[in-house]
Task: inverse folding
């Protein structure tokens, strides 16, 4: 679909993909778009045009200034925001990009055109590579816009200062834009582009901000117009009427009320289902210190490795892991996933050769074939952190396909002096042979994001395939059911996004899943749904979901079996 420039009329409902379950109403603030500067525009410094001989210096200074400003912002930010800002600063600092521009400028090309051309060439390579790199194209373009604005003597593009609680609307938000946001004044985020695994979605999820991405028509919303953002429904309503506002306010209030229950996860009849958090950094873990979370079900360690030219040392890793273990304390389990590099998370030092199909290539645990020292060092660091803190982590490998891989991983874990080894089930082969996989390890954790991608042969980063990537697809549910059945009393968790959907959480419980790990903001609604249905009801819902032919019918079948109180509170 295309966008129109005409502002949508009151009552218009824009549709996109919701992130989280929150809702908010507030005035639109639009993110300042990229500067419209012609390729041959003059370079300006202190209000005066720069002489031709000084242009290379001015260009180098513009890159350096932009990198410094981004680093500065990174220094003031925390956690993932700081990490992604640092990565964007590194892009602005990248000598390959800068030198390509400088060579062109020394050859007589106008600076703005040279920046455009070099960024265009890099973006094409990133897009070709797909996955994580393709998602970084937004950051690359943000570097270009900032450098061009700097060269033209214009203010930096991005988010204006928020004077009141607002709904921030953008084509897409680069981490640099997001970091400039005063999150205390952000009621909701809406983007026309981006995907559910992009930066905007990650940052919104981490901060519990209602968010709708891929909202067609959002960039035409007029500044100051009130909109109602409903992440659970994936909708943005223009100038909502009083009834719509009241309904959303009631929903938001009901969501807040759910946070009061801090008991461990269990069904109404006391069947325990551990409710765990997904984290990416030590800061994420520290935020969980006083939270009603039974532990960490997925620590994505690759965040520590991203944007590096070399792997962090064993010492550096041990320090970071110890921080996480300490933050959770001795009584809460922490499941650490070993490095999941490749495909959507490529690392310079691990993924040395470009692959035609990186999602099907040497990624995740398979890296042990080409870079075994990465796993060995990580396990050494984890064992050291465990010894230092007195809390031993559970350790699991991503992208395991065969029982033999599971056996080899478990042996490596034990050799490092760690006792609890598991693997993720995110490849259909592992789900189909889950019993044999489980015979080799102590636990498994279903990664439904990748399991859906590989079951449905649909790239998880392609927003337009979101219908195929739905974890409610019966084929995906069949594989989850097969894995849970194979568990036969052994721990089978779910740590993909599907665990954060309260209805799916009930189905997963009915299928026999023993723990659910999700972004912490999603936890209260899942806990609430779980505590109001018995295990028998959950089993009935699982049966109903498996009995139908398509995802919408599966969800509807489960919705029809919900206790009325839950249906009302979750606005199903
Ligand atoms: C998954 O694939 O479901 C998962 C949890 O891992 P990631 O999203 O990090 O690939
Ligand atoms: Mg995965």
Result:
């Amino acid at each position: 679909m295309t966008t129109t420039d005409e502002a949508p009329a009151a009552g218009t409902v824009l549709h996109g993909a919701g992130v989280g379950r929150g809702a908010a109403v507030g005035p639109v603030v639009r993110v300042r778009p990229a500067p419209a500067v012609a390729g041959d525009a003059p370079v300006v410094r202190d209000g005066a045009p720069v002489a031709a001989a000084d242009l290379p210096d001015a260009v180098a200074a513009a890159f350096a200034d932009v990198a410094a400003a981004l680093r500065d912002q990174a220094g003031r930010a925390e956690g993932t925001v700081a990490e992604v800002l640092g990565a964007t600063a590194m892009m602005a600092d990248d000598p390959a990009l800068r030198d390509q521009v400088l060579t062109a400028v020394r050859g007589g090309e106008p600076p703005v055109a040279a920046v455009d051309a070099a960024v265009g060439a890099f973006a094409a390579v990133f897009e070709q590579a797909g996955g994580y790199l393709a998602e970084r194209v937004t950051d690359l373009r943000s570097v270009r816009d900032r450098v061009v604005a700097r060269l033209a003597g214009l203010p930096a593009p991005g988010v204006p200062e928020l004077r009141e609680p607002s709904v921030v609307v953008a084509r897409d938000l680069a981490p640099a834009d997001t970091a400039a946001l005063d999150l205390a004044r952000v009621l909701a985020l809406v983007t026309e582009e981006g995907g559910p695994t992009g930066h905007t979605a990650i940052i919104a999820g981490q901060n519990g901000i209602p968010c709708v991405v891929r909202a067609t028509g959002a960039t035409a919303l007029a500044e100051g117009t009130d909109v109602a953002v409903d992440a659970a429904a994936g909708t943005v309503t223009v100038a909502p009427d009083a009834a719509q506002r009241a309904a959303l306010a009631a929903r938001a209030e009901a969501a807040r009320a759910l946070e009061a229950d801090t008991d461990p996860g269990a069904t109404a009849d006391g069947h325990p289902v551990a409710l765990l958090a997904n984290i990416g950094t030590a800061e994420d873990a520290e935020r969980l210190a006083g939270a009603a979370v039974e532990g960490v079900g997925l620590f994505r360690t690759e965040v520590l490795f991203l944007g590096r030219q070399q792997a962090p040392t064993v010492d550096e890793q041990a320090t970071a892991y110890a921080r996480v273990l300490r933050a959770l304390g001795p009584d809460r389990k922490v499941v650490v996933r070993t490095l999941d590099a490749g495909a959507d998370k490529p690392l310079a030092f691990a993924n040395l050769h470009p692959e035609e199909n990186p999602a099907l290539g040497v990624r995740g645990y398979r890296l042990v074939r080409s870079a075994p020292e990465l796993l060995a060092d990580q396990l050494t660091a984890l064992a050291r952190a465990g010894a230092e803190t007195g809390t031993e982590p559970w350790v699991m490998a991503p992208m395991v396909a065969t029982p033999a891989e599971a056996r080899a991983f478990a042996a490596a874990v034990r050799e490092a002096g760690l006792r609890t080894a598991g693997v993720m089930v995110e490849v259909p082969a592992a789900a189909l042979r889950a019993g044999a996989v489980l015979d080799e390890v102590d636990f498994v954790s279903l990664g439904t994001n990748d399991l859906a991608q590989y079951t449905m042969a649909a790239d998880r980063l392609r927003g337009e395939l979101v219908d195929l990537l739905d974890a409610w697809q019966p084929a995906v549910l069949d594989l989850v059911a097969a894995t849970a059945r194979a568990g036969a009393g052994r721990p089978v968790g779910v740590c993909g996004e599907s665990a954060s959907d309260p209805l799916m959480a009930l189905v997963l419980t009915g299928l026999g899943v023993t723990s659910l790990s999700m972004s912490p903001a999603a936890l209260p609604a899942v806990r609430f749904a779980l505590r109001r249905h018995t295990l028998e009801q959950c089993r009935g819902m699982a049966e109903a979901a498996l009995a139908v032919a398509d995802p919408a019918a599966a969800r509807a079948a489960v919705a029809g079996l919900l206790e009325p109180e839950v249906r009302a509170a979750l606005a199903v």
